[in-house]
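Aim 2, interim progress. The first record below pairs a target sequence with its structure tokens.
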Amino acid sequence: MEVPSTKVQNNFGAYLKYAQFEDVFVTRNGRKVAVIKACHEDYFGDPVVLEAGEAYMPKDAKMTYDEFIEFSEKSDKRYEFIDGEIYLLSSPSFVHQRIVVEILNFMYIWFKRKKCKPLTAPFDVTLTKFDLKNVVQPDVVVICDPEKVNEKGRYHGTPTLVVEVLSKSTMRKDLSIKANLYLNSGVKEFWIVNPFNKDVIVYLNGKKESNEYVLYKNDETVKSVVFPGLELSLEQIFAE
């Protein structure tokens, strides 16, 4: 992130917070003149500058929604914002992307000439849970209210269907933090696609706590409840 020195002087506290997630380069007349880096304590309790600050996500580094929007617009990295915490999105694997493309291609054809439209990341989805705004980038999302995409291309509606394909680096977050967000912000149907077990769990109508879900495995076909007729075989999803 590059920021003019005048902005740093006027809001130094905010940029100290941003530096916990990635380096903040201070510029003057368009040239870099300084850098603000994150640091943590080493084994002996002494402060140490982090060489890869973007990989360090301190749990107590909360941000407001407005702070996150300003931060993300100035960064060339991809982040999600959930319950005041920032999560860096790493590059997905080949298998992950192949599955995403397979699902998206199928849904693109199925939804053609229909009101609802499937989209894929990177695409900001702003969800409200208990009056708190969160920003995520689902692997695949189906929206039926495209008029809620604002002039900056940010979607502030409630997706009808969300698909997350698990990866080793995001599995814990997708299965807990993001699942909780989706199912408590009004998402009607949520698919968890597991490339490791080659199965799919479909949560229905935000009822995860009531165990209202369907597990598809082996040679079964995933069937949407919200969109009758939308059916995709596991063989096609996990085709090699």
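The second target in this work package is listed in the same format:
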Amino acid sequence: MKKSQPPNKTPQPGTAFLAYSGYDLRFMFPVLFLVGIGMVMVYSASSAIAVQKIGNGTYFLKRQAVFAVLGIAALVLCRHFPIRFFRFLTYPLLILSFFFLVLIQVSDSGYSAGGAVRWLRFGSFSFQPSEFSRFVLVEYLAYSMSRKLDRLEDFYIGFLPHVMVLGIFIILIMLQPDFGSAVILGAITWIMMFVGGVRVKYLLSSLMMGIPIVLLFLVSADYRIQRVIAFWDPWKHASDLGYQTIHSLMAFGTGGLWGAGVGKGYQKLFYLPEPHTDFIFSVIGEELGFAGVLLIIGLYVLIILKGIKVAMDAKEPFESFFALGLTAAMGLQVCVNMGVALALLPTKGLTLPFLSYGGTSLVLNMASIGFLMNIGAKTAKNEQLPIVSEQ
């Protein structure tokens, strides 16, 4: 009986760096590049608004810089937080998320913007509970599905409990109301259950039953009907219902191939609503042009593809599901925000990850990247361990 020598394997490019430093450049470069571009574009898009409302053109830039520092701290913390312990926080985080969503409705801490109560404010600190709920739902689904891996095809084990938790989240979020976030949560749950092996007939049935509910909800309020009308024919309602969509498209149209130049766009000058948050992609299109848009899309593609690879390579079911959910949540948010800016989807108040102004979104998305790197580093480190066999 003797031990064989470790196989003489040459690590793939970047694997050694990933295994021993834990900070994968294939994540770090596109993420930090996007955060840097975001700070420049937030300043460009918000300076005129900040001067008019606050009297300080750098107000939003300074706050975004603070958010970026907090985001980097969250990334580092989540990169080194033991994943095996994180799963034990599932139910405390779930309860905390429900508590925040209820608190926003029953206390004076909730405040509104754009007609919806979506933020909690404690003194000078504020955050958006729906963003936190998205992260918590992913963690809950990953934990629950990994424990029930061999029974996910059972309706009462693999499908019903997850849909019930989703339903509670959706009801609380719709009270704000925040239809866009509710749809994102439903899509994330559907994707994770589909990949996990929940019976397709259950998923399709829930989808078919959900469509009439969504349609009924859309026609239950005048402003939602108006958004749908504006989506179908924005040019016919350019001065009212389609105002946002028209000016967003005008921003892309005037950008051309190379853009008007950073700081030289016109649509952000009180024509395009929320240019530093929901419609920052439109400002990018005008000032950086088609080339800048392609660059941004390319950086997101790199992040999403890397996230999918981390999910596929992970050795433990919880880590695989968690990485999948985080990647899906980020990818869906990117697609919805860009779809709205390009008039491919009705107007929804969702930020663009790493680029839009906003602390909750930036910190939680960077925390997600930290967890993805954590899982990827653990997988790479395990692959570097010598293989010992007996003869």
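The chain is about 70% helix and 5% strand. This observation will shape the mutagenesis plan for the next reporting period.
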